[in-house]
Amino acid sequence: MELDPAQTALVVVDMQNGFCHPDGSLYAPDSEAAIAPCADLVDRAREAGATVVFTRDVHPPDQFEDTHYYDEFDRWGEHVVEDSWEAELVDKLDPQDEDLVVVKHTYDAFYQTELEGWLDAHGVKDLVICGTLANVCVLHTASSAGLRDYRPVLVEDAVGYIEDEHREYALDHAEWLFGELTERDDLMFA
Questions:
Q1: CB neighbour class for 76 (10 Å; exposed up to 12, middle 13-18, buried from 19)
Q2: In sequence order, which residues have a C-beta less than 8 Å from that of residue 155 and are 6 or more positions away?
Q3: What's 9's DSSP letter?
């Protein structure tokens, strides 16, 4: 699969200490295993001149105090709280000045963030998506991208997950409904 770097962004979803480090509250070994593949994609995208976007799932401590129904802390426990070590990107993924870092407060990196406007302003049409968790933030960000008429391409061997079946569900659902799948070795920025 060849993608034009001038209209492509690599979106690295939530590769944060809280999910990828053994001391994180929502640590998953397969999220940690996705660090090196994501870092490889970042290097390749930068080298080709493609845009690099990192998302960070960040929750103010009182975010869910007055919610009616949607409360991630009830579902997952407190995690990636604002200004915490958990909320920081893993050390191996070091954003550069030219990269966009999107702070989000839900599973979807487009919901109430600057992401869509920024991508449009930079002429981005294709999104290569990697990161964690496959069936949560990766899936919801990719589906939201497809609904906004971006081309979401999920990199199968660069996504973290908790259970194998979660990964399989997310990738199958994405390919069936709104996106495309590839592996790192089959992806070229050209």
A1: middle
A2: 37, 41, 128, 129, 130, 181, 182, 183, 184, 187
A3: E
Average pLDDT over residues 127-150: 98
Q: What is the pLDDT of residue 190?
A: 87
- Residue 114 and residue 129: Cα distance in Å, rounded? 17
Interatomic CA distance for residues 161 and 50, integer angstroms = 26
Cα separation of 114 and 112, whole Å? 7
72-88 tens-digit pLDDT: 887 787 788 889 999 99
Q: What angle do CA 63, 167, 47 make, to 5 degrees?
A: 85
Contact present, 35 and 27 (Cβ < 8 Å): no
Alpha carbon distances (Å) from 94 to 1, 35, 162: 26, 12, 24
Q: 9-63+72-118+133-189 is classed in which CATH architecture?
A: 3-Layer(aba) Sandwich (3.40)
Closest alpha carbon to 106 in 82, 70, 77, 134: 70
Instruction: Tell me the C-alpha to C-alpha distance, in Å, between residue 149 and each of 61, 154, 179.
Output: 34, 15, 10
Distance between CA 49 and CA 127 in Å, rounded? 14
What is the rounded CA–CA span in Å between residue 109 and residue 131? 12
Residue 106: name the closest of 149, 141, 143 by CA.
141
